[in-house]
Specification:
heterodimer, A: alpha/beta, eight-stranded mixed sheet, 8 helices, globular, B: mainly alpha, 88% helix
Chain lengths: 233, 113
């Protein structure tokens, strides 16, 4: 079943790694809100993520081994392009951090054909609260991205995005891990895509904060990798 | 010839023989075989003729021959680390590509059934 919104084929793409505790709830809440076209990329999970996602009615592609969020998004975007020719792909986190209600806000600028891509921003959202450590690291990421991509964004590493047709066809993700977020921003800059930041709330639950502790280290590693790649490529 | 020189010389000859064996077993290319044997030959020459490094040191302006050997060794090590980085990075990208493509192929086959 394809969600037709002003004759647009809209797909939800969820990269997931060891998310058995949340994935079912996330898919159920999306379905309740009318989003039935959900593709989950199980990134080599060691738990029952794929099983729970399948039971909830999502389409599943499985990576044999864990390759990271960037690789999962690449798999998902390539597969959707080859099989469904989508108009819009919304990337959504599997850990329940994103609000289903915000999808409509992200979709609007792309559906209206005003922008090629809409990016969620937790810093534009007045209600959003986050740990000081996370805030510091994200702010550092913003400055870093401004220097490298020369593009002014308030939130550079938010996994909540809506990609229109032009963005789906032109954005090339080259990093397999968290660094893919910088790839997307680089591509927006290089391919001169029209982008809009949309305030989206991030729900920091005990579960996501616990997972986020690891992500802080990942962010630092990611910065080092990006610098190395910029030097060596 | 002192004992240390003898041990190093035997080790280098052993290393050269390993390089040849790896080439014979098609584990490394001809280019890699030549490269590694060249490196080991230099080590052998430096060990057998230590005065040679003193002459090189004088030419390039570094005090002692031993310092020159260290200096060149560090440079070589950095270069080798760089080569390893590039190679590992390429292998990593290849594995990612394989994972992405196989996941799509397997899923498409499952859908057809």
């Amino acid at each position: 079943m394809i969600l037709e919104h002003q004759n647009k084929k809209i797909f939800l793409l969820i990269p997931a790694y060891n998310e058995e505790r949340k994935i079912g709830q996330v898919i159920d809440s999306l379905k309740k809100s009318g989003y039935h076209d959900i593709l989950v990329i199980d990134d080599g999970s060691k738990d029952k993520t794929a099983e729970y996602a399948k039971n909830s009615g999502a389409e599943i592609l499985r990576h044999i081994i864990n390759r990271g969020q960037g690789a999962s998004l690449r798999t998902g975007i390539e597969y959707l392009r080859e099989e469904y020719n989508p108009d819009i792909i919304v990337t959504f986190d599997a850990d329940g951090q994103h609000r289903v209600e915000d999808i409509a806000l992200l979709l609007k600028p792309v559906i209206d054909n005003e922008f090629d891509i809409a990016l969620g921003s937790r810093f534009l959202c007045k209600k959003c609260h986050m740990t000081p450590m996370r805030k510091l690291i994200l702010k550092a990421g913003i400055i870093f991205t401004r220097l490298i991509s020369r593009i002014n964004l308030t939130d550079t590493h938010n996994g909540f995005r809506a990609l229109g047709r032009k963005a789906i066809d032109s954005i090339k993700i080259s990093h397999r891990g968290m660094e893919h977020a910088s790839d997307i921003i680089d591509e927006i800059s290089v391919k001169k895509l029209k982008y809009k930041e949309v305030p989206t709330e991030i729900i920091y639950s005990k579960y996501s904060i616990q997972k986020g502790t690891n992500k802080n280290i990942d962010f630092i590693k990611m910065g080092i990798k990006i610098i190395l790649n910029k030097i060596l490529s | 010839m002192n004992i240390l020189t003898l041990i190093i010389a035997i080790f280098v000859i052993f290393a050269i023989s390993r390089v040849f064996l790896r080439y014979k077993g098609k584990e490394i290319s001809l280019r890699e075989m030549i490269f590694w044997n060249f490196i080991w030959m230099i080590v052998l020459i430096v060990v057998l003729f230590p005065n040679l490094t003193t002459n090189i040191a004088k030419i390039i302006g570094i005090g002692r021959g031993v310092d020159t050997a260290f200096f060149i060794s560090i440079l070589l090590l950095f270069y080798l680390i760089f080569r390893l980085y590039v190679k590992i990075d390429k292998i990593d990208k290849d594995i990612t590509e394989l994972t992405i493509q196989t996941s799509k192929i397997i899923h498409k086959q499952e859908r057809k059934r």
